[in-house]
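User: Hi! I'm working on a homework problem where we have to compare a predicted structure to a textbook description. Could you give me the structure for the chain below?
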Amino acid sequence: MIKVKNVKYKYKNTEDTYTYNLESKTSVVVAILGQSGSGKSTLLDIIAGFIKPTAGSITLDGAELLSKPIEKRPITILFQNHNLFEHLSVQKNILLGINKTLKDSSEEVEKVQAILKEVGLEAHEHKLASELSGGQQKRVALARVLMRREPILLLDEPFSGLDDATRIEMLELVEKITQEHQLHAIMVTHDLDDCERIANYVYKMENNSLVKQ
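Assistant: Happy to help. Predicted structure tokens:
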């Protein structure tokens, strides 16, 4: 279980202090709902280690995360911008998730192929990322996240900009992967429909505090 307890953050040159409390079990999706600028993505930045809170604790199965450097935290993040290298193949883009030199072993290639099957792109392994549709590129980004096999999956408005049918497909894929891999998935969104579709629990930013709905 991941527990966020009395975590606070105050931006410089402002009077606003954000307060976060949240709990998440494995195999469920927790959604954080809120308007743009409400502070919902700030929690993801704190969990990831991009910024430091002014108070509070974040634990995974009782182990404190805030004391760990970014590279040691057991997380992966799927951003709104998929950050693919369009001149590289699907396979190479996924391998970048674990190997910056792109030196692939047969074991790693087999893992890529298995993950591509999970996300429905097994026929596109050697295509360039630039040749894929927007929805397919999102699937590649999700596959790259899965390659790292970390227990915490953070999603920051990852499917905005996609058409409705593709967005629904991606949301359902995240739900399926969260359950099958027993992940702790925390998704930031401003879309209530996204929450209703896959979230097991919903929190909302209200008056600078995260409140369970």
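For your comparison, note the following. The beta strands are 2-10, 17-24, 28-33, 55-60, 63-64, 75-78, 152-156, 184-189, 201-206, 209-212. The chain has six helices and ten strands. Good luck with the assignment!
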